[in-house]
Design goal:
The complex is a heterodimer of chains A (331) and B (321). Chain A has 331 residues and is α/β, with parallel strands linked by helices. Chain A has two domains: 184 residues, Rossmann fold (3-Layer(aba) Sandwich); 127 residues, Rossmann fold, CATH 3.40.50. In chain A, 36% of the residues lie in helices and 18% in strands. Chain A contains twelve helices and 14 strands. In chain A, the strands form three sheets. A seven-stranded mixed sheet of chain A has the order 3-2-4-5-7-6-12, with helices on both faces. A five-stranded mixed sheet of chain A has the order 9-11-10-13-14, sandwiched between helices. In chain A, helix 2 links the parallel strand 2 and strand 3. Chain B has one domain: Thiamin diphosphate (ThDP)-binding fold, Pyr/PP domains (Rossmann fold, 3-Layer(aba) Sandwich), CATH 3.40.50. Helix content of chain B is 45%, strand content 12%. Chain B has eleven helices and eight strands. In chain B, a hairpin with a 2-residue loop joins strand 5 and strand 6. Chain B is globular, with a radius of gyration of 19 Å. The termini of chain B are far apart. Classes of the chains: A alpha/beta (331), B alpha/beta (321). The interface between A and B is large, with 37 and 43 residues. Bound molecules: thiamine diphosphate and magnesium ion.
Chain lengths: 331, 321
């Protein structure tokens, strides 16, 4: 039995980073307020003391600059971790991520590569308004050359950040401010890794498959509880890795349940959810008994008002409703 | 000192902003306001001086620390408080919140949340003024922390190259969130860059509304008369943390107290008291209390925006699906 430790989500990420920085001195972290301030969301708390300012680097508000610097450093052998205060601000560095991080391996004919991790909280927080609530995975998963992961549990948070750091390509790691205080057991083993590209069945069931990631996994589990009371046995899949995508696990589940709902934050036009629906309908067409439904953020910029924000983001009720519809059991 | 009633007027305007934000902080603690709330307490003289130096049809654009600028420009305390409370009577209909005050009627063209992103917009409104020959000036504010980001540089390059009537003001409150200036800028004096852009500059520590009017006034006049942009850096101080979630542990209480002694609002009040205006100050304070209490009540009593607002504030006309 491996020893387990009960930690919060933010500590699980930190454990993973600290272990990898101890293991490999090419790894460093850069971002706004990651050092002296101990992290805007305290993810990097204590790391400056432990590793010093050479490896825990406070940067001014220069997302494009410190992303580019990190990509450059990665091209010649370092392994940077870049923290954005939130993923929203990565938009300022979008060109660096799209045109440099993602392309250098191919443009150079495979001579160079970019082993970099970009990480930050993603999607809605609480009433932070239209410019601070973006689900950025939908923009980045579109890009060949990038990998994107979004853990929902503490163990996965640790295991995936470690795999991301060890990966030789750019990995975008998406957290959620709403999960930072979540408690969970994580293996203490410094070789505990969660591989990229593997989904996790977090609840088994036979009637409908609910597919989600990050914060929405927890909402989907609540929806599954409610569905159980109404006689619908839902299977819940935590995708974890959005690119590469574990289509085998998704298809195996739908082959069993014949129905699927994809629930996530982000707008309905395109995006990861649409990609998942496309894969399932192509790979499991004969097994489907109903059109797949998506439960997304509604098709508007995020409003500030608390009730409107709740109205716009996916919730238990909408997931339950979608699950019933695909099961032809409308209330 | 200029005409005493004018000074009393400035005092009252600053006091409205101060008390507005103190009540906003209280409402935040009560859960009536959500998300981010960045207070301007300590910096009010800049907003009040700016409003006095501008013409009513000049444009103003600022950051998420926007309450003071909106109130000084003419947004009512009611509309501002209602916005914080997420009510439909707010200046952005409860859709924007603290960081996104908009008041087109008063040419307050918004508070923006992405650091630096609003600076090119200001060059753009100035571009439109020059294009139309309407004689308007744009003034835009940014923090010391924003001075490093690309959009700041690009906006200034273009404004200088195309001779746009815009005044760039760095409100240097010495900190970018928890980071002191010494750790964000290799050259502490932001106005040193002006020579490289090819625009005039000015730099001063904010002491009073009068001083802001005078110093900004020169740059505004230059923009209006010769369509030349300027870069001004005003040294100031925020008394509170970066936002409500920041306890501000990176500053000593001695430092904060030192700046509170130099607080332009406090200094002006003391000055007016000495000039024998104690009664008028008391009357002003009372009317401010009423105005703010009324604003809180108005915000409490107002209705929330409904979902029907979402589509028409996303697109004009048919929704583009
Ligand atoms: C591009 C971008 N990166 C990071 C942030 C997060 N952030 C918001 S305000 C702020 C500090 C800004 O400091 P400064 O420019 O000095 O303005 P002040 O808050 O002091 O008025 C940071 C890092 C952001 N909003 N936008
Ligand atoms: Mg500042």
């Amino acid at each position: 039995m491996t020893a387990m430790k009960s930690v919060r989500f933010r500590e699980a990420i930190r454990m993973g980073m600290v272990e990898e920085m101890e293991r490999d001195d090419r790894v460093f972290i850069v971002g706004e307020e990651v050092g002296h301030y101990q992290g805007a969301y305290k993810v990097t708390e204590g790391m400056l003391d432990k590793f010093g300012p050479k490896r825990v680097i406070d940067a001014p508000i220069t997302e494009s600059g410190f992303t580019g610097i990190s990509i450059g450093a990665a091209m010649v052998g370092l392994r940077p971790i870049v923290e954005y205060m939130t993923w929203n601000f990565s938009a300022v560095a979008f060109d660096q991520i799209l045109n440099n991080a993602a392309k250098i391996r191919q443009m150079s004919g495979g001579q160079l590569h970019v082993p970099i991790v970009l990480r930050a909280p993603n999607a809605s927080a609480k009433q932070v308004g239209s410019q601070h609530s973006h689900a950025m995975e939908h923009f980045y998963t579109h890009v060949p050359g990038l990998k994107v992961v979004a853990p929902s549990t503490c163990a996965d948070a640790k295991g995936l950040i470690k795999s991301a750091i060890r990966d030789d390509d750019p990995v975008l790691y998406m957290e959620s401010e709403t999960l930072y205080n979540l408690k969970g057991d994580v293996p203490e083993d410094p070789e505990f890794l969660v591989p990229l590209g593997k989904a996790n069945v977090v609840r088994e069931g036979g009637d409908v498959t609910i597919i989600s990631w990050s914060r929405l996994v927890h909402i989907s589990l609540q929806a599954a509880e409610q569905l159980a009371k109404e006689g619908i046995d839902a299977e819940v899949i935590d995708v974890r890795s959005l690119r590469p995508l574990d289509e085998e696990t998704l298809v195996a589940s739908v082959t069993k349940t014949h129905r699927a709902v994809v629930a996530y934050e982000g707008w309905p036009y395109g995006g990861v959810g649409a990609e998942i629906v496309d894969r399932i309908q192509r790979l499991a067409f004969d097994d489907l008994d109903a059109p797949i439904e998506r439960v997304t953020t509604l098709d508007y910029p995020m409003p500030y008002n608390a009730k409107l924000e709740q109205f716009v983001i996916p919730n238990v009720e909408r997931i339950v409703g979608a699950a019933k519809r695909v099961a032809y059991r409308s209330a | 000192m200029k005409d005493q009633d004018t000074q009393l007027g400035f005092y009252r305007q600053m006091q409205v902003i101060r008390r507005f934000e103190e009540e906003a902080a209280r409402a935040y603690a009560q859960g009536k306001i959500g998300g981010f709330l960045h207070l301007y307490i300590g910096q009010e003289a800049i907003a009040v001086g700016t409003a006095a130096a501008l013409n009513a049809d000049d444009y103003l654009i600022t950051t998420y620390r926007d309450h003071g600028h909106a109130l000084a420009r003419g947004t009512t305390a009611r509309a501002a408080m209602a916005e914080l409370f997420g009510k439909v009577t707010g200046c952005s209909k409860g859709l924007g919140g603290s960081m996104h005050f908009f008041d087109a009627e008063h040419n307050m063209l918004g508070g923006y949340g992405i650091v630096g992103g609003h600076l090119p917009l200001a060059a753009g409104t100035a571009f439109a003024s020059k294009y139309r020959g309407d004689g308007r000036v744009t003034i835009v504010f940014f923090g010391d922390g924003a001075a490093s980001i690309g959009d700041c540089h690009e906006a200034m390059c273009l404004a200088a190259l195309w001779k746009l009537p815009v005044v760039f003001v760095c409100e240097n409150n010495q900190y970018s969130m928890g980071t002191p200036l010494s750790r964000t800028l290799a050259v502490a004096d932001v106005t040193k860059r002006a020579a490289g852009y090819g625009m005039p500059s000015d730099r001063f520590e904010c002491e009073s509304v009068n001083q802001v009017i005078e110093r900004f006034g020169k740059a505004i006049k230059r923009a209006r008369e010769t369509s030349e942009p300027s870069l001004i850096e005003v040294l100031t101080y925020r008394h509170r943390g970066h936002s409500m979630s920041d306890p501000g542990k990176y500053r000593t209480s001695e430092e904060v107290d030192e700046y509170k002694k130099k607080d332009p609002l406090f200094v002006l009040r003391t000055h007016l008291e000495k000039a024998g205006l104690a009664d008028k100050l008391t009357a002003a304070d009372e009317s401010v209390e009423q105005e703010i209490a009324d604003a809180v009540k108005f915000a409490d009593d107002s209705a929330e925006p409904g979902p029907e607002l979402l589509a028409p504030t996303t697109y004009k006309g048919a929704f583009a699906r």
